[in-house]
Write a structure and sequence with these properties.
The chain is an alpha/beta fold and 308 residues long. It has one domain: Vaccinia Virus protein VP39 (Rossmann fold, 3-Layer(aba) Sandwich). Helices cover 30% and strands 22% of the residues. The chain is built from ten helices and nine strands. A nine-stranded mixed beta sheet has the order 1-4-5-3-2-6-7-9-8, with helices on both faces. A hairpin with a 6-residue loop joins strand 4 and strand 5. Helix 5 packs across helix 6. The longest helix has 13 residues. It starts with a helix and ends in a 22-residue tail after the last strand.
Length: 308
C-alpha cells in the first residue's frame, strides 16, 4: 500500500494537469450582472433546515460548476418548470434568482408521506449580503414507482439533474412519464456523471474499481447505473426526444493523474477528447412518440417482444 501511494505521488508530480491536455472545462455560463466569485458565495451560502452544515458547505463548493452549467442550459427559457429532485436546492436557488421560470419542485426521501410539503431554505442575498429564508413547496413521490402528480403537458421545462444514475429499475418508464407531463416541443434538461470520464479511464488502467460504494442512504443513495455520452443521447432519442445540445465537463478537481500517466493517455484518447469530462449535460426537446419497448442494449432478461 505504501509503495502504491509513493508511485501515485510520483505520477502526479510528473504528469501535466488534465486541463492542459484535454478540453475538460468549457466556459462557465455565469449570468450577466454578477461575478463568478459573487455567484460562488451565493450558491455556497444555501442551507436547508436540519441538513448537516458541513455536508451542505462541501456539496455546494464541490459541485458549484455543475449547478452553473445546468443553469446555462435553461438560459432564455420561460414558462412552467418542474425540477425533479430539487433538494438541497442549490440549482433551485439559481433558477429562482436568474430565470423567469415558474418553478414546481419534487423530492423523494424514502418512506415518507406523499403529497405536498414545504421546506425552508436559508441563503445570503447575492446583491446586498443580507441573510434570507425562502420556503419552497414540493411534491413528494418516487419517480420510478409513482405516477407523477401532474397533468399531461403541464410543463414547458423539466429538469432531471443527477437522478437517472440512481434509478434501480426502469429509466424508460421514468422518461416516458416526463414526456407525458412535458408539452410538445418542451425542453428536458438532463445531467448525470459520465462513466467514461478521464478519471475512470485512468482508474481502470491502474487496476482500480470505478463502481460507486454502498451508501448509508440506502440503494437510492448510490449510483446504480452511469452512462456514456453516446448512451444517454441514444436513450433520449429512443423515448422520443430530440437532443439539441450535449457536452461533458469537469466540475471538481480531476484526479486522473493520480492513477495514470496522462501524457501517455493523451495520444490514446485524442479521438474522444470531447467526451472525457466528469459530467454529461444535455438539452432535448419533446418531439416524437416514445417507443413502447425498451432498448436491448440497456435491458436484459425480458421477453423478446418487449425489447427493441
Amino acid at each position: 500500500m505504501l509503495i502504491k501511494k509513493i508511485m501515485r505521488r510520483i505520477r502526479l508530480e510528473l504528469s501535466a494537469s488534465p486541463e492542459k491536455l484535454f478540453p475538460l472545462r468549457p466556459a462557465l455560463p455565469v449570468p450577466h450582472g454578477i461575478s463568478e466569485k459573487k455567484l460562488f458565495e451565493f450558491v455556497t451560502s444555501v442551507r436547508v433546515a436540519d441538513a448537516p452544515e458541513q455536508e451542505m458547505s462541501a456539496y455546494g463548493s464541490h459541485d458549484f460548476r455543475r449547478f452553473v452549467y445546468t443553469l446555462g442550459l435553461v438560459n432564455g427559457l420561460e414558462g412552467k418548470c418542474l425540477e425533479l429532485g430539487a433538494n438541497p436546492y442549490f440549482t433551485t436557488m439559481l433558477l429562482e434568482r436568474f430565470t423567469k421560470l415558474e418553478l414546481s419542485l419534487a423530492n423523494y426521501f424514502g418512506p415518507f408521506p406523499g403529497g405536498l410539503h414545504t421546506q425552508d431554505v436559508f441563503y445570503t442575498d447575492a446583491d446586498n449580503g443580507t441573510k434570507n429564508t425562502k420556503t419552497f413547496s414540493y411534491q413528494h413521490f418516487n419517480v420510478e414507482n409513482d405516477p407523477f402528480p401532474y397533468a399531461d403537458g403541464e410543463f414547458d421545462v423539466v429538469i432531471f439533474a443527477e437522478i437517472i444514475e440512481h434509478l434501480l429499475n426502469d429509466p424508460c418508464k421514468v422518461l416516458r412519464e416526463i414526456k407525458r407531463v412535458l408539452k410538445p416541443e418542451g425542453h428536458l434538461i438532463v445531467t448525470t456523471p459520465n462513466v467514461a470520464r478521464l478519471e475512470n479511464v485512468a482508474r481502470l488502467i491502474s487496476g482500480e474499481n470505478i463502481y460507486d460504494p454502498y451508501s448509508g442512504y440506502g440503494p437510492y443513495g448510490r449510483h446504480n447505473r452511469e452512462y456514456t455520452r453516446h448512451e444517454l443521447v441514444t436513450l433520449l432519442r429512443f423515448v422520443g426526444f430530440d437532443v439539441k445540445e450535449n457536452f461533458t465537463a469537469d466540475v471538481h478537481e480531476n484526479r486522473a493523474a493520480v492513477y495514470a500517466d496522462l501524457n501517455y493517455l493523451k495520444g490514446k484518447l485524442e479521438f474522444r477528447k470531447s467526451d472525457l469530462g466528469q459530467y454529461l449535460f444535455l438539452k432535448a426537446t419533446n418531439t416524437t412518440r416514445a417507443s413502447d419497448k425498451v432498448p436491448s442494449w440497456l435491458y436484459r432478461s425480458l421477453p423478446a417482444d418487449q425489447l427493441a
